[in-house]
Amino acid sequence: MCSQLRIRRLRLTSRIPLLMVFCLAILVAPAAAQQLPQPPATHALTVRDLGRATAPLGGPWQFHTGDDMAWASPTFDDSTWQQVQAGQPWDAQGHWGYTGMAWYRRRIDFAPDTPADLDLALYLPAVDSSCEVYWNGRLIGGIGKVPPHPVWYQSPYGSVGDVEGMLMGRSASGMPLGRPQPGVLAIRVWKAPTILFASPEEGGLIAVPQIGSAEAVAALETEVRYDWLRSNEFELFVVLLCLMVSVSCLLMGVRNRGSARQSGNRILLWLAVAMAFPLEYLLLSDVYGLVTFRWNYGLIAIVIGIYDAALWFVLIELLGLNENRRLVKWTKVVVVVFWTFALLDGALQLFDWTRMPHRFLPFDTAFTVEEVAAEFWGVVLVLVAFRRRHDAARWMLAICALVANLVQALDDLGGMGMRWTHWRLSSFISQPIFTLAGSPMSARTISNTLLLAAVLYAAWRYSVEQGKRRTALEQEYRSAQELQQVLIPEAIPVLPGLLIASAYRPAQEVGGDFFQAIALPGGEALLVIGDVSGKGLSAAMAVALIVGAIRSTAEATHQPGALLAALNRRLHDRLRGGFATCLVARIAADGSLTLSNAGHLAPYRNGEEVPLEPGLPLGVTFDTDYPESTFALAPGDRLTFVSDGVVEAQSTDGELFGFDRTRRISSQSAEEIAAAAQAFGQEDDITVLTVNYAPVEVAHA
Questions:
Q1: DSSP character string of 252-285
Q2: What is the tally of helices (H) and strands (E) in the chain?
Q3: Residue where one domain finishes, among candidates 206, 226, 246
Q4: How far apart, in whole angstroms, are the C-alpha atoms of residue 42 and residue 81?
Q5: At what angle do helices 377-384 and 392-421 cross, to 10 degrees?
Q6: In terms of domains, do 461 and 512 share one?
Q7: Does residue 394 belong to any structural domain of this protein?
């Protein structure tokens, strides 16, 4: 009995350590379990109700500055990372002014009722400045390109592309995630160097990513684009009208390029440049990442400089300031300074600032401050012009041009200090003031619209005024033609012994050539041919003065030299700085010919040039003597008088008709000579007068 009890005690005693070990294991197990590797403390975001709509991936994301490709792995432990909110820049979440690489991570799970065959995609509407997106460690897309060869956009709202599209620089509708399965979404973000026109808060995921089916993501992006077009349709309409006005002004300016020194033509050319600015500004804008940052920031200052210069010269022409040579000179100086700093500022984009991001800002500031200051030069022009009087159309266009210039200048001034001084001026200019048919109307849109309206109104007023002037000018020309038909007779009077024919072809509606055939007592005849310097209506009025003087002077003297001397005294200081050439011939009944020349072309006798004593043109000096030359005409001799419009006819190749051709055809009829010169290339008035001497009385042709 005792032995059995001992045996039982021994067995119990031997089992006690085992029981103690078992109990100890039970007690220690929870503590040991707490020391095992645990999943990150962050909770996965469970996406629910994925159908036709997309789901936002908002809320806290794990965030870490720096760069390590191991952070793309789904197994990486990011529990010690800082948590930030997607949709807000990292400047506002404790990382103000940080540039370079940073990572966002978020664990994604899907509700059990999510269809297993759903093709998922990610929509990332905005990032500052570029990024790569990884799903479970696999690169699926991004916005722009990250260093070492970065591509980013002035605005962070760029297009999202797949991997191939991202690497090729193309855009696509979304980034494929594949079938619904738990995973980690990692976004590698790069922030470009800070610029002078920076926003108060920048950097990172400034918009909340969206997840959904590929069809839902494509529909979302289409909706976003449609909403943008719908809200900007008025501005796009204004841009289209501005482009049409610009092309119209350019075509009219090119058509009138022969009068490039005229003020009206210069206004057309400068307006063509100014009205093209809205389109240029839109093309250089960052709508859906059409233009990268380097192109945008490198060219926008140059484009604004061209636009401002065009508006300034429009103001100078409209307000009559082109007579103020000092002001025009200073305007050109300001334009040169503006363009110089704009080119220097644009040239900064030729360098890689990613290696030294904080050194770009000083250079950018140094070149931009002068540009913004120069933009206010339009105010100086308008202040100078206040003492002048102009019509309503000119003042309206000038004021609207000034307003558009000021809006651009104030926008740039406010944008320059928005990040550093917290000015809200640029935000106020960019934000809608009111809405018109669903289109937001900002200060820039309103100023461009007013400028367009002013240009159209001025163009309408200009066309009305031009129509009235054209009608009045046509009436003046008709009156001048009627007067010239009286002064230059279509029917030559019958002169005994002479067969006279004429051809007169003005270069314009009225001309500056003249000729007269006057019968004298004793069977003599007085022939006068000449040419007034200049063309058009002023020359025709001078012709009227000269012909009247010839008629009155011929009553006092029949001597060619004395007649020219008297004409010269009457015309001195009455031709407004011009002059007139004139040739007078007196033919007696016996065939004696007396000639006196005042700078006109010598006549041809039977195909040969008649040698004459030279004389100064009429109206050059007050006292001038005109020598006479005397010849004897034989029966059948032919005299041919021409104006310089014959010898100065010019072909399209620049070749002159010349004296040799004129001499060779001088024996032809007046109509044939005039037709030959006109067909060669008329540049001036053409007058031809032929005289055949016959000693017996003949019927006049």
A1: HHHHTGGGTTSHHHHHHHHHHHHHTHHHHHHHTS
A2: 18, 23
A3: 226
A4: 10
A5: 150
A6: no
A7: yes
Q: Work out the pLDDT band at 698, boundaries 50, 70, 90.
A: very low
Three-state DSSP class for residue 638: strand
- In 3D, which of 153, 157, 135 has the Cα closest to residue 207? 157
- pLDDT recorded at residue 29: 36
Residue 323 located in a structural domain: yes
Residue 74 sits in the same domain as residue 103: yes
> Is residue 94, in this structure, part of any structural domain at all?
yes
Contacts of 77 by beta carbon, 8 Å cutoff, 6+ apart: 40
* 655 CB burial (10 A radius; 0-12, 13-18, 19+): exposed
Cα dihedral 516, 519, 524, 527 in deg (nearest 10) = 0
Q: List beta partners, residue 85.
A: 60
Q: CA nearest 270: which of 313, 302, 306, 308?
A: 313
Same-domain check for residues 637 and 508 = yes
Distances (CA, A) of 281 to 95, 277, 317, 392, 445: 32, 6, 25, 29, 12
CATH code of the domain containing 216: 2.60.120.260
pLDDT tens string 190-231: 999 988 877 888 899 988 999 988 888 888 888 887 887 787
The reply to whether 196 and 75 lie within a common domain is yes
CB contact set of 669 (below 8 Å; sequence gap of 6+): 501, 690
| Position with higher pLDDT, 63 vs 10 | 63
Report the domain count for the chain.
4
Cα distance between residue 177 and residue 186, in whole Å: 12
Assign residue 360 the CATH number of its domain.
Answer: 1.20.1070
SS (H, E, C) 576-603: CCCCEEEEEEEECCCCEEEEEEEECCCC
Q: Which of 409, 436, 466 is the last residue of a domain?
A: 466
pLDDT at 294: 84
Lowest mean pLDDT among 292-301, 341-350, 408-417, 493-502: 408-417
The CATH code of the domain that includes 496 is 3.60.40.10
Q: Which amino acid is at 41?
A: A
**Run of H or E residues at 30:** helix 2-35
| The model's pTM | 0.61
Same domain for 499 and 572? yes
Domain containing 499 equals 488-693
- 481 in any annotated domain: no
Give the residue among 253, 256, 389, 377 at the shortest CA–CA distance from 318. 389
Alpha-carbon distance of 542 to 578, in angstroms, equals 10
- 220 and 319 co-located in one domain: no
Q: Establish how many alpha carbons lie within 13 A of residue 428's alpha carbon, considering only the half-sphere containing its beta carbon.
A: 8
Cross-strand bridge partners of residue 441 = 434
Cα gap 585→395, rounded to integer Å: 59
Neighbours of 136 (CB within 10 A): 18
Contact 133, 140 (CB under 8 A): yes
Average pLDDT, whole number, for the chain?
A: 80
Confidence of residue 289 (pLDDT cuts 50, 70, 90): low
Say whether both 548 and 625 belong to one domain: yes
Q: Residue 666 has which token pair?
A: 């001088």
Cα separation of 90 and 127, whole Å? 11
Residues 55 and 168 in one domain: yes
In this predicted model, what pLDDT tens digit does every residue of 112-142 receive, in sequence order?
A: 888 888 889 999 888 888 999 999 999 998 8
Cβ burial 523-546 (10 Å sphere, 16+ → b, else e): ebbbbbbbbbbbbbbbbbbbbebb
